[in-house]
Amino acid sequence: MFRFGSSSGELRARAQKTVLACLSSSLAHLRSLHSPSFATVAVEDISSSQPAEVLNLVQGKWKDSSSWNWIVDPLNGEPFIKVADVQEAGLKPFVESLSKCPKYGLHNPFRAQERYILFGDISAKAAHLLAQPEVSNFFTRLIQRVSPKSYDQALAEVYVSQKFLENFSGDQVRFLAKSFAIPGNHLGQQSHGFRWPYGPVALVTPFNFPLEIPLLQLMGALYMGNKPILKVDSKVSIVMEQMLRLLHECGLRVEDVDFINSDGIAMNKFLLEAKPRMTLFTGSSRIAEKLAFDLKGRIKLEDAGFDWKILGPDVQEVEYVAWVCDQDAYACSGQKCSAQSILFMHENWAASELISKMQSLAERRKLADLTIGPVLTVTTKKMLEHVNKLLEIPGSKLLFGGQPLENHTIPNIYGAMQPTAVFIPLDEILKDTNFELATREIFGPFQVVTHYKHDELQKVLDACEKMHAQLTAAVVSNDPIFLQDVLGRSVNGTTYAGIRARTTGAPQNHWFGPAGDPRGAGIGTPEAIKLVWSCHREIIYDLGPLPPNWEIPSST
């Protein structure tokens, strides 16, 4: 009986293993059936036991590297993506590839005009693919895996990218190169203004929007006739690697874009050696200023933003305004260059239930649905140190948050912080000894809150004037005189005005970018694309004929 029971158990165990193997095989088959045709990864399978690989693209070929950079899962710290890391010694093929592109670009209004039509077709096909639920979900989940944010926030990034591609389908690409003509001084003379490509260009983009920022800027560069090399933060570059494969499936020539993964030192060396005619950098102000110096000004920047919101005297729709404040400050765990960094409340708002409603909304955010999550560039320790320094300012107080997240496996190299707000008196913020600290951008779920009296608007505007970053802003009021006053004495490049005003939001239907800096870059619109990715060229036709009986005039 004992031997029989043992034999039966072994048979049962074997049978269970066989069934599980069959189920696993079936599930893998089902996943492959539902995976996009271009994809080289299965999003849900990426793990330390099944790591994904990210390759480089140069001279039309996908290539690995002798060195691999392991990326850890931001939610559990396990290595789950290996990136082919280009070292300084391996830059030569990328330099050679970019140098093959002439200054006049791959197409321009006088050459290879069919490529304008080609990119309209590519955009149409890519927009159609990205609108498919299976493809949309693929990119949404891939974004979540590497830059954890709520599903809706990640999906919004995919949606904006898809609508952008729709916007530049058909003839819209060639419309970007629309020229103009002005009559000359005599018969046969006419001047024409053209939008001209730079030729070899570079893009360096950050982690927080792994698809939207690099895709929109990359396509803008291509539309105008440039040959770009794309460098995305390696923590999230898998997203654009997969997007490039989608674009290839839609007709993009594999030689038209190079894709490089490297550290900052290697990329800086590449830029100095390859000498791109223009570089687009989106990221921190410190690196932006270094690149502007190294590249001798041949750069466009969309750098840091310590973004302000001013609440005017007319208190209304308190619950809605509180919700927008919560979204602006804490969606994506505050990791948006447009995130609400400081809130100036009119005394009427200070007397309302606004702060208590903001607190309630902040406290419902949870790691389980990624409405709060890992902070990828600031550790918990640094965020707590910053909060404590602010609380040393006279009159300051913690409004809510201020504690690390609990019960998580987020690695220590990242931050894990509750949504936090610190109140600081306006007069204290304006002091020279406090201003730099109070207006220091913390790229995480953190904001400063203050209030002002009815006759203290000038102090608020003085504070805004002293800030060095002018990316986004919001003036929350329906009072036309108040709006006119604040808008007329501020400069932020993307400013929302009205009771529904927000600081965040970079959709495809309006300009998004800083103002007040000649190096400022925009994104998403025809104006942004033309500004960033083309320059003006004037061609003056002077065909004659000469006037009858023309003679050489006297010297002048």
From TrEMBL:
GO terms for cellular component: mitochondrion
Residues in Aldehyde dehydrogenase domain copies: 72-496
Classification via InterPro entries: Ald_DH/histidinol_DH (IPR016161), Ald_DH_C (IPR016163), Ald_DH_CS_CYS (IPR016160), Ald_DH_N (IPR016162), Aldehyde_DH_dom (IPR015590), ALDH7A1-like (IPR044638)
UniProt keyword terms in alphabetical order: NAD, Oxidoreductase
Pfam families given in the database record: Aldedh
Superkingdom of source: Eukaryota
GO biological processes: L-proline catabolic process to L-glutamate
Xref: SUPFAM superfamilies: ALDH-like
Molecular function, one GO term: aldehyde dehydrogenase (NAD+) activity
Family, per entry: Belongs to the aldehyde dehydrogenase family.
Protein name: Aldehyde dehydrogenase
Native source species: Acorus gramineus (Dwarf sweet flag)
Phylogenetic lineage: Eukaryota, Viridiplantae, Streptophyta, Embryophyta, Tracheophyta
